Amino acid sequence: MASNRPAESTSFAPGGTQTIGFASRTDEGPWGEWNPTEDSVRPVRGRHRVTRQRGGGLARSSTVLGVGVMAAVGAGGMATAQTGKPPVSISLPDLSSVTDSAKSLIGEDTSAPKGSATVLSTAGVSTADAAAGTKDAGEVLRARIMQQAESQQDRIAAAAAQAAEDAAAKKAAAAAAKAQDAARAKAAAEKKAAEAEARQKAEAARLAELAKQYTLPTSSYTLTSRFGDAGAMWSSGYHTGLDFAAPTGTLIKAIHSGTITQAGWAGSYGYRTVLTLDDGTELWFCHQSSISVTVGQKVATGDVIGRVGATGNVTGPHLHLEVHPNGGSAIDPMAWLQGKGLNP
Questions:
Q1: Whole-prediction pTM value?
Q2: Which of 79, 133, 210, 233 is the most exposed place for a label (fewest CB within 10 A)?
């Protein structure tokens, strides 16, 4: 690397007059005049590294500007001393606006008196914080972070509380709906049971009223063959009536009021009496030992129409009862009697 060429030495004579800056001294001799030449101010050759200036540009610029002004003032004084001319007045620029702008950028209070010491740690302190007595920006930042954290925790807690409240409300609503459904089901079951009980009572009342109008055909009996029993004894292959086994001569009564439509011998049925009711139902009383009524006779419930016997195709004395609705095919006498409120 090339070095700068040394400047030529200058002799100073004592006793002369020298002006430095704005002050004039007379205790030293006259100075020799120095005129720069091309050789004395030759540019510096070679490569020089210029250090990059970092942060604090405004403050350093102010410092460099001040140094430059001082150098200019010194040079002017030296030139004045060398040339003997009166000092030249140099006016400095007003840097207060630049300084205030820089302070405002970093948050420093520009309203403070000139020359007062203001620390840079107040950067970021708001007016409210300053009014509260806070001057430390770090403390303000910490307080704000803590406030934000507390606010976030409050929001989280509020959200959790709201979620818990919603879950509790949902659970309570589900429980209420379940209880309501259970109450409805219970009420429906109770209503159904009450209706069934009412129907049973009504049917019992109806049967009791019918029982006053109907009666069993005989007494002191034993049920032997029932409707539908299979056997070779019956021409159809199965039993078509209900047999009341009783001693010969036991009274046979009219089950309900009606008209005698047949009375006499009927082959395998022996002596038979047919009672036709007002609705057209025919009641056959078979295997009688004797008949007490005649065709066309009106009878009432409980009237004696004959006696138990063993006539026709039988194995012993009994009453063979058959029921023929509207004179048609035979049905189960047991079910028909029960439908009239009677229990054989």
A1: 0.45
A2: 133
